[in-house]
Structure formats: C-alpha cells, structure tokens
Amino acid sequence: MKTQHSLAWLAALVISSGLLACGGDDDDDGNNGDGGGGTASISGVIPGDVFLGRDADVLIIGSNTEWAAGVSVSFGDGITVGDINVASPTSLLVAITADDAAALGTRNVTVGDLTFTGAFEVVSPLKVYSTQGVVAQGSISVITIQNIDFANQFDTTSFAVEADAGPGTQLVPGTIDAYTVSFTFLVDVSAASDTRDLEILSGPQGQQVSFILPGAIQVGARTAIPLELGAPGSGTVNRPFESFLYKVNAKGPNLIGGDSRSTSADAAPGVAVLPATGSFADILDFNSAATAAVEDDFYLIYWDNTGASDYSFQVQADVLVALASLVTESEPNNNRAQSAMPDGAPAAVNLSALAGLEDEDWTQVTLTAEQIGDGVNLRGMTFGPDPMTDTVVRIFQGDVVDPIAESDDLVTFLDDVSVLVTEPDTYYVQVTASVSFDPLHSVYNLAVLLEPPL
Known about the structure:
This protein is mainly β. 2% of the residues lie in helices and 50% in strands.
C-alpha cells in the first residue's frame, strides 16, 4: 500500500521561496529564463529522498526561474511523476511514486532543461540491524531488521508480518515492535548461494504495507559434513546461533533418532532433520532428541536457540526401528477403502496433514501369522516437526466398527497408543484431529510399529 503525504507542510516553504524569485524573462515556454537577475538554476529539493514503494510530495525550488504550467519534471528511472503544481515561478510541488524496483542511490532532478546533479536519493525503508549465526546453505540464523520509515510502523496489534527472501528460504517472525522485527532465518541445503532481496509485508490482509530492502542478505555456500549412522559428530559453537550441517546415509528405510548434547549448562541444543530434498518445507522434526522416518540420505542441522556460545557439542543419528516400508501421505485417505497401504510393517507415513476437525487419515497393515506369533503389540505413534499438532490415534481390526485401542486425547498433542493383537488380519490406524485442534498446527508423521508383548 502506498502512502500519500499532504502538501500542507510545504506551504510555508513555498511562500518563503517566492522571495528568491526576482524577475524573469518574457518567454512563455514554461521552462526557465535568466530572470534578469542571474542564471536560472534549481536551488533546492525538499525532501531530498523517497523510500522504495512509497509516494512523496516534493518541493522543488528554483532561482531566477519562470516555471509555468506544462513544465516537465524528471527524477530518473523508477520514479513516476504525477501532479505538478506550479506554486510560483520559482517553486513546484510535485507528487512522485518510487517503484518497488527502483534503483537505490542518488540521482539527478531535471526541470525543463535545468538539472540538479545528485539532488535526490532513493532509499530503502529497512536496514539490517544485526545478523547472528551462519547464513549459508542448510542453516538456521537470527536476523533483526530495523524499520526507518517512521510514517509506516510495523503492525504489532495482530503480529501481521510476513517476509520473503526468495526461493529456498523461510523467515519466521519472532519479537516485533513498531520499528524492529527479528526473524529466524531458514536456508535450504539446495538454496542458491547468492545475495537476496528482502520484502516484509506488515498489516492485515488487504491493507498490507510493503517494505523492501534490495541486497539485504548474502547466503553463503557450504558443504555438509559426512556423518555415519551410530557415530557421533562433534564441534564447537564459537558464536551465538551458529549452526552446523551434517549429511547421513539412511541405509534403507529406518525410523531414526537424532540426538544433540552440549557441554554448556546454558545451551538448549536441538537437531533439525531434513529429508534428501534438504528443504525446510519438508522438515521431519526439530528437537533435542528428534525422531524421523527416512529412506534416502538425510540432513541433520545442529542449532541452539538460546544464543549460548563458546562450548562443545555432539550430534548423533541412530536407528530406532528398521522399517519394512515408508510412504508419503496421499489424499484421499479418509476411510478404510482409501487407506494408505505401506508394503508391510513396521511402516511409516511421512508429511501428513490434517485438513480440519472432520478430516480422517487412514493407514492399513496386513499382519501374518508369522508376524504375530503368540501375540505382538501393534503401535500407532504420531510424531514430527510440530509438537502442537493435536491428534487422536485409533487402531481398528478388520471391519469391526469400534476401535480396539484409542489414545487419551487429554494427555498429549502428538499421540502414542498400542494394543496386543493375536489374530492374523488387516489392521487400520486412524488419525484424526483432537477437539482442541488448531488449524495452524496440522502437520505430523505416523509410525506403525510391531513390538514384543510386555
């Protein structure tokens, strides 16, 4: 949204600037003359700058000029000139708009055949206040942005701030006030290592104000550190919010646990688990002890969100359960007939999401007499990157209407339920939303496991 400023504040300047005009020529071409008192020139431009994406009203003051209706005004490429009000032969009130893509920096102002070199500047309404951590491929860092456009504050009433730094990145808003906002900045492993423009949109939908900062962020290149399953990796955090990227070979479909530890009592380390895509949009978990179902190479990113530094750490990925199969959720899967069918158990379903209170996600596994033996615990467990996803897990046998096991909806958000089964049959695991489900927290993964009876 553009903002148009009133011309009223310029009135006094226009009146006083008229004192500078002391005559003129007899030309009626609407441009300039020597005025009989000296060479015509542009003597002032007020204000001397405009923010990207904003409107402004500019007073241009001339000396020995005879400006009249029809005079031409230019501020260079990327600035659109609107109404030109000839307040006097030596003063113009000009409405301008700076395009979102206008080049930053100083530029000339031209009126007729007069030019004032370097009289005006296009500036960004934003500045990078601080960058903490490593901004590179496969990283998590903290970036704080300052708003210097005092006429347009950040909207803090509803925390309505969105930000974009281009493909392969995400900016998650943190603390915010009228003139400062901090983001957790996520960069995919495959993101291009280049300079990124930043755009922040602030305000309710339909009334958002755009803030643009070209060349705000430099994403560096880095190579993931190889890490073997079951073997620890270690390092030293030398600066606050520093992250470390590791690549692990999954060695087949496995349910893995990613563990992080540190030598600092002040730290709260965690590991983000990304699949082979290396994309945070596909994140499988982030926790001090993360759980994820993986099949191909995957990535671990060590990060401590406390900002502690000058300590050593250790990360490790271990196989919790060897999976027979791993699938990705595919809709529709809203009943027994549509249920996902992993190729055997134990199994996992990745990147699932609940569309709302009425959505049902079904998964089926067929257990043989050999698998069941004298009895086996069938376990359904939701897990994943969003611990606030509120699920209910139920286990059904065959066509029986009632579940043979159901998680306690009052205890946790993500759920874990198991039941002893003794008959070869097709079993179904159903995941639904809890009555306290929040649509903003809908993502989960599901593991269907077979465990020895207690």
